[in-house]
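Pinned message: reference record for SXP/RAL-2 family protein Ani s 5-like cation-binding domain-containing protein
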Amino acid sequence: MLQKYLISFFLIVAIVFAHRGGPPFLKGASREAVKEFFKIQNNKTAKISEIESQTSAWAEKYNVTATYKAAEAKRVEFETGARKNVTTVIANLPTVKTQLEAIFDNKDQTFAQQRQAVDALRTKYPKEVVTLFHLSGPPPPPPRGGRGGRRGGRRH
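Predicted structure (tokens):
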């Protein structure tokens, strides 16, 4: 379950960062080309394979195939790296958890020494320590205010 959550998180991050300012193959494209591209991407009923083939055909139609393929290769490379990183973090979690528990169970140290030990572990395993602290912390508070929410978080 945790692995699926982390993979989903990294993929969402990849999508968000990949589309800041739009994909590179849309730069300099006509308004019609951009509109057609987003129509393909926002098709809620099409399967992923259909969207991919339609986007590839779109790239050929607007002569941006090379830039499109380069962007796709970069996306695939990022996803592969993200999956590898997630696998590594998940594999390290039991070891880091055991080490953190040993640090916090050691009563023959000062709080400063405890903090130094945690910082040393965080230096060696930054993602793992942050992940374990996140998982062991309290749940985040519910959203407040905003569109459709209660203003100021007050209950009526």
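Pinned by admin. Summary line: The chain has a mean pLDDT of 86.
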